[in-house]
UniProtKB/TrEMBL annotation:
Occurrences of domain Zn(2)-C6 fungal-type (ranges): 18-48
A Pfam family that the UniProt record links to this protein: Zn_clus
Biological source species: Myriangium duriaei CBS 260.36
Entries under SMART domains matching the protein: GAL4
Annotated GO MF terms: DNA-binding transcription activator activity, RNA polymerase II-specific; zinc ion binding
Biased composition (Polar residues): 59-72
Spans annotated as Disordered: 57-91
Source organism phylogeny: Eukaryota, Fungi, Dikarya, Ascomycota, Pezizomycotina
UniProtKB keywords: Nucleus
Protein origin, superkingdom: Eukaryota
Keyword Zinc-finger: no
The protein's name in its UniProt record: Zn(2)-C6 fungal-type domain-containing protein
Keyword Nucleus: yes
Length: 411
C-alpha cells in the first residue's frame, strides 16, 4: 500500500509475564495477582497463562504459552462441549497490513461511519437502532475482536460510497485486514467466553455474517463454481461460530440486546409450511432421481424456505438486513454439501431464495445480490430446468417492470 495510506504508531513496551487479557488488549500489565489493576478496573476476569509466574526465568518468559486455541472450557458453559478455533489463524493477504498496532485516525473515521451509517439497518426496528449503537460501542471498547469486526464492516461500507478507485481499494483492503484480525482475536478469546462476554461474541458473529455475504455479492463471480465454493465456505464459517455461541443464546436473550434478536421469531416459528414453494417444487423432490437422504435434506430446506417466504416482514425499515440470511445458516448441513456439488435441485432452491434477497435490495449489503445470484444459476442450469425456477424469475421480472413503469411516470 502507498505511504499515504494507513500509518501505524510504534508499539509500546509490553510486560512479558502479564495476564492473557492485557496481552489480548495490547496494554501494559502490572502483573499483580490474583487480578491485575487493568482487569480490576475493567471488571473482567484476569486469566494468567499457565506456566507464567513472577518467579519464572527470563528464558521461560521469552517463550510464553500461547492462548488456548484448540480446546478450552468456558467458565459457565457445558463442560462437555469443547471450543475449537473456527479457522486456522489466517495469513494476511499480500499487500495488506497486519493490523497488530493501535487504531489510528483512519480507524476512527471508520468507527464514526459505522455508528452513524453502517449500523442503522442492522436491527429490525428503527426504535432499536440507538440501543444497538450503544451496545456495540460499549462491548467493542472492551473486546478488540469485536472492534475489529465493527471497523471491518464500516470500512467495507465506506468503500461503497467512494468514487475514487484508489480510495475504494484502500478501504476494501483495510476491511479485509480488519476481518482477519477480528477472526484471530475471536479464536484467541474463546477461553474468555462466559455469561458476561457472550453478547460481544454474538454481535461479532452477526457482523462477520453481514460482511461475508456482502463481500461475496460484491465480488460478482461469473463462475458458478467459484461462487458456490465461496458461499459454502462462508456458510461453514458461520455455522462454526453459531455452534460455539449457541450454548449462551438463552443467557444473551435475557440482556437488553436480546430484545432486538427475538423480533419476528414467533412469527417465523408459526409461519405456514405450505405455499408456492411446496406446491410448485413438490413434484421435483418427490419423483426426482436422488437418494433418500438427499430427498430428506431437500424437504427440510424447502420447508424452511416456505416458512421464510410466508413470514410477515416484521421490520419497519425497507433497507433492514435483519435475519435475511438465516435460511442459509439453518438449513441442514447436508444441503451445504449438495450446493458445493452443484446439484441442480439445490441450485433451484437457492434461486428461489434469491427472491428473499431481492426483497431487501434497498440494503447496501444486498443491493442487486438477489438478481445476480438468480441470473448466475439460470445460466448454469439451462433450459432443462427453467420450469422449476419460473416463479422466482417472474417475481424478479415483475419488480423490474414496476421499476421501469415508475421511472416512466416520473418523466
Amino acid at each position: 500500500m502507498s505511504s499515504r495510506q494507513v500509518v501505524f504508531r510504534k508499539r509500546h513496551r509490553k510486560s512479558r509475564l502479564g495476564c492473557a487479557e492485557c496481552k489480548r488488549r495490547h496494554i501494559r500489565c502490572d502483573e499483580s495477582r490474583p487480578s491485575c489493576l487493568n482487569c480490576r478496573s475493567s471488571k473482567v476476569s484476569c486469566p494468567y497463562l499457565r506456566g507464567s509466574a513472577h518467579a519464572a526465568s527470563v528464558d521461560n518468559a521469552s517463550h510464553p504459552q500461547q492462548p488456548a486455541s484448540s480446546v478450552a472450557n468456558p467458565p459457565a458453559a457445558d463442560q462437555s462441549q469443547t471450543l475449537s478455533p473456527l479457522i486456522p489463524s489466517p495469513s494476511t493477504p499480500a499487500g495488506i497490513h497486519d493490523l497488530s498496532s493501535d487504531f489510528d485516525a483512519a480507524h476512527l473515521k471508520t468507527f464514526y461511519h459505522f455508528l452513524n451509517e453502517t449500523c442503522r439497518p442492522i436491527p429490525a426496528k428503527s426504535e432499536h437502532v440507538e440501543l444497538y449503537r450503544r451496545t456495540v460501542a460499549c462491548h467493542a471498547f472492551q473486546h478488540s475482536f469485536l472492534m475489529s469486526g465493527v471497523l471491518a464492516l464500516g470500512a467495507l461500507h465506506l468503500s461503497t460510497t467512494m468514487t475514487d478507485t484508489q480510495d475504494k481499494d484502500r478501504y476494501r483492503n483495510l476491511s479485509t485486514a480488519l476481518l482477519v484480525k477480528g477472526l484471530r482475536g475471536f479464536n484467541e478469546s474463546l477461553p474468555l467466553l462466559s455469561a458476561d462476554t457472550c453478547t460481544a461474541f454474538v454481535m461479532f458473529a452477526h457482523l462477520v455474517g453481514l460482511q461475508s455475504f456482502c463481500s461475496l455479492i460484491m465480488a460478482k463471480e461469473t463462475s458458478v463454481g467459484k461462487f458456490l465454493s465461496q458461499l459454502t465456505q462462508t456458510i461453514n464459517l458461520l455455522r462454526g461460530i453459531r455452534s460455539i455461541i449457541s450454548p449462551w443464546w438463552d443467557t444473551m436473550l435475557k440482556s437488553d440486546f436480546g430484545s432486538m434478536m427475538v423480533v419476528g421469531s414467533e412469527e417465523r416459528h408459526n409461519a405456514l409450511e405450505t405455499g408456492v414453494v411446496s406446491e410448485q417444487l413438490s413434484e421435483l423432490f418427490t419423483h426426482g432421481d436422488m437418494s433418500d437422504s438427499a430427498r430428506k435434506t431437500y424437504d427440510e430446506a424447502l420447508r424452511r424456505l416456505q416458512k421464510e417466504l410466508n413470514c410477515p416482514d416484521m421490520t419497519d425499515m425497507d433497507d433492514s438486513t435483519f435475519a435475511v440470511f438465516s435460511w442459509l445458516i439453518t438449513t441442514p448441513p447436508e444441503f451445504n454439501s449438495l450446493l458445493e456439488e452443484r446439484r441442480p435441485e439445490a441450485l433451484v432452491l437457492l434461486a428461489w431464495f434469491a427472491v428473499i434477497l431481492h426483497q431487501h435490495r434497498k440494503s447496501w449489503i444486498i443491493r442487486d445480490g438477489g438478481r445476480y445470484i438468480f441470473d448466475l444459476i439460470e445460466v448454469h442450469l439451462g433450459s432443462r430446468w427453467e420450469k422449476w425456477i419460473a416463479w422466482p424469475k417472474a417475481q424478479l421480472l415483475l419488480d423490474q417492470d414496476r421499476y421501469q413503469a415508475s421511472r416512466n411516470d416520473r418523466k
